[in-house]
Amino acid sequence: MVIFFKWVIIVLGIFCQAQAYQNPLRIVADDRKLLQYPFEGHAKGPSAEILQLLLEEAELEGEIEFMPWSRVYKTALTRPNTLIMTIIRTPARENKFQWITKVSDTVYSFTSKIASVYDYADTLTIAKKRVTAVVRGSSGYNYLIRKGFSEEENLYLVGSVETAIKLLNNNKIDFVFDTPAVFINYYAQKGLNSDDFVKHHFIQETRKSGYIALSNNSDINLLEKLRKSQKIIEKKAEYKQLIKFRPLISESTR
After folding, report:
1. In the chain, what are the domain boundaries?
2. Which PANTHER family does the record match to this protein (predicted)?
């Protein structure tokens, strides 16, 4: 009987190693200019730097694959040994991933052109009567669906926030639902100040944190390495500095 159990343990060990080999570490992310983005063949941004700290401490290697968010999410949801970034931690997603380390804080807003005359006293009610662009499959999209929005009535789904901003600038839509930081970056790249072009109304209940997370059913040794690394890097001054990079935009912003 003892010999039998030893063989079971050996076989399980071999099986786990085989599974890990079949599913090497993969890292997926969307292009999010203030967090992570590709530049000259490399990943840049504070979230990418936090990832590098995490991997180095865990003695792991991997390159970020950039792709549209819907594909990022589906890949991490279905493939073991996949790191996803930056993903908003919500109650609906809590049991779908292993949450490794926080990389950002964020808040969503309905953003319109500066010249719009919308009264923000009851933004959700007004927005339901207008057209709002939102990135397909994003946390913002899920929030609006829960609030009764629909593609048939008042949502315009896009693959990237850049597309949404262009639609807003061309008067094709009334609002963009995303984080104000993306507008800061979009206009800054053109040498402009976003406050001269758009105004925001913050939805306070959307304040969330962004994370690096690992897919469920991943190799337990990989998870343990990442957990151990996370505890170490979160005590480092470099991590604390990166997590404060471009803090939340002030509510006083228009």
Report:
1. 26-105+208-243, 109-206
2. PERIPLASMIC SUBSTRATE BINDING PROTEIN FAMILY 3, SOLUTE-BINDING PROTEIN FAMILY 3_N-TERMINAL DOMAIN-CONTAINING PROTEIN
CATH topology of domain 26-105+208-243: D-Maltodextrin-Binding Protein; domain 2 (3.40.190)
Topology agreement, domain 26-105+208-243 and domain 109-206: yes
CA–CA distance, 242 with 196 (Å, rounded to integer): 28
pLDDT, mean of residues 12-36: 71
Query: Residue 34 has what pLDDT?
Result: 74
The predicted structure's pLDDT at residue 94: 95
- For the 109-206 domain, the top CATH level (class) is alpha beta
**Chain segment 228-246, per-residue pLDDT in tens:** 999 999 999 999 888 875 4
> Other C-beta atoms within 10 Å of 18: how many?
10
Q: Number of C-alpha atoms within 13 angstroms, CB side, residue 225?
A: 18
Flag whether the pTM goes above 0.70. Answer: no
**In this predicted structure, what is the pLDDT of residue 121?**
59
Which pair of tokens denotes residue 1? 């009987």
∠ CA(99), CA(103), CA(109), 5° rounding? 105
CB count in 10 Å sphere of residue 191: 6
Q: How far is it, in rounded angstroms, from Cα 197 to Cα 95?
A: 40
